[in-house]
């Protein structure tokens, strides 16, 4: 009996010894394989980082300039960056194919939705399919009404008259100001009032700190860093562990959510049917408060930085082209009364040269420099480029505005006249000019954005001269979801001569 027990124990010991041996061997092989893969992975990332940074930083000030150069050299106006797995195109035929002909095969995709999911949730700019279609329908119905356009016009007019112009007047001959920061505050006030019925007061003369605006800044910046990360797994791990930038992002989004939910709950208590802001209009159709928060937050994110970028670049170009400013002033004097402060909605529609100047500015400096989709299945673009399932496909409005084959030999010039025929504005194909996207997913706020830009430009240049502190220089953009100038743009404000 004892010998049998001893034999059993000896066999058990041998079994565990053999098991430990195989475990050790497997662990060693796994470690070697992991080290090999890690070395290969980091090698590829190093190559990727070096390829991107060293290739363009020597000769180009911005990544978008480098992409533009590569696309200009390509016979098909399409390139593929293998280390990024990204097909990039400036070919209008390809753009039309992606955004219209084969729209269903080129959705935003799960990679994009995951990057902005914490901030935008199920909002219209972060969804595809039925969820997107539902929001698209109710948004298009609301934004197309004359009442909402009148409401938006009144908001912008009040912000210009009560805050922007007085602030500029108080700055005449006093000190330089950052034009980009000014327009970020201006656009945030407008979009919050339009979307939430909430006035953060960022453009008051004291330029107060706003926790809501600061949280939005940080959340959009950190979300953009996710999109630019060479190792997507890194930010996912940080989010899982709630450390570093992901902890800051979570805190910023918490502030945004708390305020948004507070506004929604207050509107439900006090009644929203008589209010005109976008949130109140959506509340008539949607009862889910978290869904409402996602929708309206998406509009704020989209309407804030894009407008600030567009206005900054327009005034930068105008400061460098006084002849264009003179033409806009001449046109306004023909349409408006001599002592009239601000133009009416109908008067703005009569100013074709102003409209052309805005379009020309957006051609050269679109707020969103590129936009990516992900192929649902294998496909071939019109120029013959093969696209594998799951491949990221990017169209590049910044580069498209600098293609000689599209705009002619003077494509680098800021020339509003290219949009006019006999003094009347003449639009180009939206697939040559996808600044507002095009096709089925074209920007719903396009007309509202254009009116706002024209109102601001007209009201400012009729009263002031905006001069750059430094001579014209090459612009450097921060990497992000929208084109923001690194360090801003310093200007001095003078009374119009």
UniProtKB/TrEMBL annotation:
**CDD domains annotated for this entry?**
CYP86A
Cofactor (UniProt) = heme
> Record-annotated residues binding heme?
443
Question: Which Gene3D superfamilies does the annotation name?
Answer: Cytochrome P450
Extract one GO molecular function annotation from the record.
monooxygenase activity
Keywords, ordered alphabetically: Heme, Iron, Membrane, Metal-binding, Monooxygenase, Oxidoreductase, Transmembrane, Transmembrane helix
The membrane-spanning stretches of this chain are 12-37
Q: Does the keyword Signal apply?
A: no
Annotated family: Belongs to the cytochrome P450 family.
**Protein name (record):** Cytochrome P450
């Amino acid at each position: 009996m004892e010998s049998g027990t001893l034999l059993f124990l000896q066999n058990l010991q041998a079994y565990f010894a053999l098991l430990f041996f195989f475990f050790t061997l497997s662990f060693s092989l796994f470690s070697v394989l992991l080290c090999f893969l890690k070395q290969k992975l980091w090698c590829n990332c190093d190559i990727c980082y070096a390829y991107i940074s060293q290739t363009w930083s020597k000769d180009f000030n911005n990544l978008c300039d480098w992409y533009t150069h590569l696309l200009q050299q390509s016979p098909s106006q399409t390139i593929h960056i293998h280390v990024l797995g990204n097909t990039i195109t400036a070919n209008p035929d390809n753009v039309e194919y992606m955004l219209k002909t084969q729209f269903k095969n080129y959705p935003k995709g799960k990679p994009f939705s995951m990057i902005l999911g914490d901030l935008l949730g199920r909002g219209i700019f972060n969804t595809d399919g039925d969820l997107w279609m539902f929001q698209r329908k109710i948004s298009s119905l609301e934004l197309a009404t004359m009442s909402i356009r009148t409401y938006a016009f009144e908001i912008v007019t009040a912000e210009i008259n009560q805050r922007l112009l007085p602030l500029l007047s108080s700055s005449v001959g006093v000190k330089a100001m950052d034009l980009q920061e000014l327009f970020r505050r201006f656009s945030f006030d407008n979009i919050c009032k339009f979307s939430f019925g909430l006035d953060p007061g960022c453009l008051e003369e004291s330029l107060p700190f706003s926790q809501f605006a600061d949280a939005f800044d940080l959340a959009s910046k950190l979300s953009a860093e996710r999109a630019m990360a060479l190792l997507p797994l890194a930010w996912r791990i940080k989010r899982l562990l709630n450390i570093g930038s992901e902890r800051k992002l979570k805190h910023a989004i918490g502030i945004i959510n708390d305020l948004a939910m507070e506004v929604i709950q207050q509107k439900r208590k006090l009644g929203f049917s008589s209010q005109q802001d976008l949130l109140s209009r959506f509340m008539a159709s949607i009862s889910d408060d978290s869904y409402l928060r996602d929708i309206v937050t998406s509009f704020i994110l989209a309407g804030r930085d894009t407008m600030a970028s567009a206005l900054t670049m327009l005034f930068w170009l105008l400061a460098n082209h006084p002849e264009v400013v003179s033409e806009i002033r001449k046109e306004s004097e023909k349409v408006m009364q001599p002592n009239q402060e601000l133009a009416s909605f109908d008067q703005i529609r009569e100013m074709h040269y102003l409209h052309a100047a805005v379009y020309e500015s957006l051609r050269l400096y679109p707020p969103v420099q590129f936009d990516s989709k992900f192929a649902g299945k294998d496909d071939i673009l019109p120029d013959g480029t093969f696209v594998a399932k799951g491949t990221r496909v990017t169209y590049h409005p910044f580069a498209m505005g600098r293609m000689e084959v599209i705009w002619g030999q003077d494509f680098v010039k800021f020339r509003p006249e290219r949009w006019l025929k006999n003094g009347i504005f003449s639009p180009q194909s939206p697939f040559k000019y996808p600044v507002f996207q095009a096709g089925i997913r074209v920007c719903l706020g396009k007309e509202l954005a254009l009116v706002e830009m024209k109102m601001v430009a007209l009201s400012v240049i009729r009263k002031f001269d905006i001069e750059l502190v430094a001579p014209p220089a090459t612009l450097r953009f921060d990497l992000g979801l929208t084109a923001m100038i690194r360090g801003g743009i310093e200007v001095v404000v003078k009374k119009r001569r």
